[in-house]
TrEMBL record:
Residues 2-86 form the Rieske domain. Transmembrane segments: none annotated. It comes from the Bacteria. Keywords: 2Fe-2S, Iron, Iron-sulfur, Metal-binding. Gene3D superfamilies: Rieske [2Fe-2S] iron-sulphur domain (2.102.10.10). The keyword Cytoplasm does not apply. GO terms for molecular function: 2 iron, 2 sulfur cluster binding; metal ion binding. It comes from Acinetobacter lanii. PANTHER family: PTHR40261, RIESKE DOMAIN-CONTAINING PROTEIN. This is Rieske (2Fe-2S) protein. It holds the Pfam family Rieske.
Length: 107
């Protein structure tokens, strides 16, 4: 099982991007103590979501936001709730937090 990072590297309502050993560009964010991971790819034009490093959330840190056209995505589900790809979803990456405090990709 591939370890991505430690829990403390991703504070509540922040996000960080990572590259997996298979070359996937993903990001992880924390909300209410739970961690959510998605492929860093906007379903609108298949581009990366962020312009600035690790800036995946909107100004209020409420939703995931695409920097290109401002689509907003629900943190827990990845569903686009506003913007040109409304109704589409980010591609979820299954992760698991282990007792060592590490966040791992689920096989
Ligand atoms: S590319 Fe993300 S909203 Fe257009």
């Amino acid at each position: 099982m591939e370890k991505i990072c430690m829990m403390e590297e991703i504070p509540e309502r922040e996000a960080r991007s990572f590259e997996t050993s298979e070359g996937d560009n993903i990001f992880i964010t924390q909300r209410d103590g739970a961690f959510f991971a998605y492929q860093n790819l906007c379903p609108h034009l298949q581009v990366e979501l962020e312009f600035l490093e690790n800036q995946f959330l909107d100004r209020d840190q409420q939703f995931i936001e695409c920097s290109t056209h401002g689509a907003l995505f629900d943190v827990e589900t990845g569903l686009c709730i506003s913007g040109p790809c409304q109704g589409d979803s980010l591609e979820k990456v299954e992760i698991k937090v282990h007792s060592d405090g590490g966040i791992y990709l689920q096989d």
